[in-house]
Amino acid sequence: MMIYNLPPTPVIECVGCTPNEITTLEFLQQRGIEDLNALAVVMGNIQQESRFTPNVCEGGAIVPYDQCLRGGYGIIQWTSTNRYIGLGSFAQKYGGNPSTITTQLHYMVNERQWQDFNLYLQIPGHSVEHYMTHAYKWLGWGIHGNRTKYAYSFLNKFNVVIPHADEESVPDKVLPSTHSQAQGEFRFPFGFSEAST
Q1: CA distance to 87, 124, 153, 175, 191, per residue, from 76 (Å)
Q2: Are the beta carbons of 13 and 21 closer than 8 angstroms?
Q3: In a domain? residue 97
Q4: CATH code at position 76
Q5: Could you give the number of structural domains in the chain?
Q6: In a domain, 185, yes or no
Q7: pTM here?
Q8: What pLDDT, in 10s, does the model give residues 93-112?
Q9: Which domain holds residue 81?
Q10: Rounded to an integer, what distance in angstroms lies between the CA atom of residue 50 and that of residue 5?
Q11: Among 53-67, 148-162, 168-182, which stretch is predicted with the lowest mean pLDDT?
């Protein structure tokens, strides 16, 4: 019997990014998104929507969830009644705060719109423009704005790190593997695991 040691999965870091940007990038990678362009497109869209400010109401007011009375709210500017109320219901059900980045990221990946978009994000090797086309189905933006420009800006901030067996990470210019890891069902909200269901 032959035993193969698989190379460690590269980690993508964001050089010079804000704490919320770093949290988001780490969260997306934990969800199995490996492609640099796919990650950059998600980050670029969030930058356009909210500048990664979770407690921003459309128009720029920084307020708690229950004080945003019109327009979009949060990192992806949840605007429609169902999606906005869904954020609050999700937070209440799972004990999160709807005005925080952590709760919003977990809600975001549990939405049907994200799950449809995520099917494309899990297939590596495509251009920024390819992923951006499919991002429209996720957000349904009215104005494209600088989404693509922001995506390329994040690409320039990404640094690929190859972890070594001794658990230390060193920068490397090798791009991440283009294979798609087998993905399980990622529907457990934060605070829950298979053991607790």
Answers
A1: 11, 23, 18, 28, 22
A2: no
A3: yes
A4: 1.10.530.10
A5: 1
A6: no
A7: 0.80
A8: 999 999 999 999 999 999 99
A9: 1-128
A10: 42
A11: 168-182
